[in-house]
Amino acid sequence: MSVLDSRIRVFALAILSGVEKASFSYLKDRLKTTDGNLSVHMQRLCDAGYVRMEKVFEGRKPKTYFYITEKGRKALLEYIEELNRSMKV
Amino acid sequence: MMEELRELIEKSMREHDLPYQRKQSLIWGISTSAGFFVTQILFLMALNDRLSGFEIIPFWFVLIAVTVYASRKLAGLPEVKSYFSKLYSKFWVAGFFAIAMVIFIAFLAFPRYTGAFVAPVVGLLISIAGVMFKVRYTTIMGFLYSASGIAMFYLWQYQFLIFAVMQFLTLALPNLSAFKKDRRS
Predict the structure, then answer these.
(1) Which of A37, A57, B74, B126 is the most exposed, having the fewest neighbouring CB atoms within 10 Å of its CB?
(2) Alpha-carbon Rg of chain A, whole angstroms?
(3) Which helix (H) or strand (E) holds B139?
(4) What domain range is A57 assigned to?
(5) Any alpha helices (H) in A1-89, and if so which ranges?
């Protein structure tokens, strides 16, 4: 099963492609999903090397940021091209 | 799906953490207007030969350091940093450089009227920021800020008081409720 077979993972990658970085809670709000669900999907993207994760502390509270990698950007572009091709057929 | 993806990418590129920005504006607005108010008192004392006037410089160094610390503690970190936010930060870095240059030149040429030369530049930058965010209040305040340069020219003894009022009206007043409720959605 491909990493970009999931709608949430594709959308998360699309959001990250437009920003320099985004927090976990920002992605959760934009994707309208739960903490548990999102963390599983983000872990999958991290494992594939499409996304880089960074943990920082805001006072005593930990905050997680995500960045898209070059590999992730390339994968998203390929996915969009594939989608375009399939729509033309 | 394609349309949704396009919308997501476009929206992300324009994204800006407004609640965070409002908190920052409130903190800097209160701090700088208080700073200008104190500067006005020190300036009047200097005019009456009760101070040398150089106390103002270390005072501002301390104020900026305290404000940077307070803004990090109170406003926290932004939820998102888009390419638009990056561009906006660069715009202000360039803006502060322009303001510093104007202060330097005006202070050498017409020290008494430094405020009258600086206010139009600050006002212009604020107006541009208002246009970028499509906030009418900020755009109008930018024009008023620029116009306050005229008042600073005639009332040069009170130029720092005018700066204090303008900073409060532009940055602090519209963001007084920034900490009341977290409007992140």
Answers:
(1) A57
(2) 14
(3) helix B136-154
(4) 3-87
(5) 7-17, 24-31, 35-47, 70-88
Neighbouring CB atoms inside 10 A of B115's CB total: 24
Q: Could you report the per-residue pLDDT of B109-158, keeping only the tens digit for each? A: 999 999 999 999 999 999 999 998 889 999 999 999 999 999 999 999 99
Q: pLDDT digits over B33-81, tens only?
A: 999 999 999 999 999 888 787 888 899 999 999 999 999 888 888 999 9
CB contact under 8 A, B11 and A18: yes
The position carrying tokens 């502060």 is B96
Residue B86, chain A, CB below 8 Å: the answer is yes
Task: Name the DSSP class of A49.
Answer: T
Q: Which residues of A touch B8 (CB under 8 A)?
A: 11, 14-15, 18, 30
How far off is chain B from A30, nearest CA to CA, in Å? 8
Whole-angstrom distance, CA of residue B122 vs CA of residue B99: 7
* Continuous segment of H or E residues that includes residue B121: helix B114-133
Q: How many domains does chain A have?
A: 1
Give me the CATH number covering residue A8: 1.10.10.10
Do B155 and B185 contact (CB within 8 A), yes or no? no
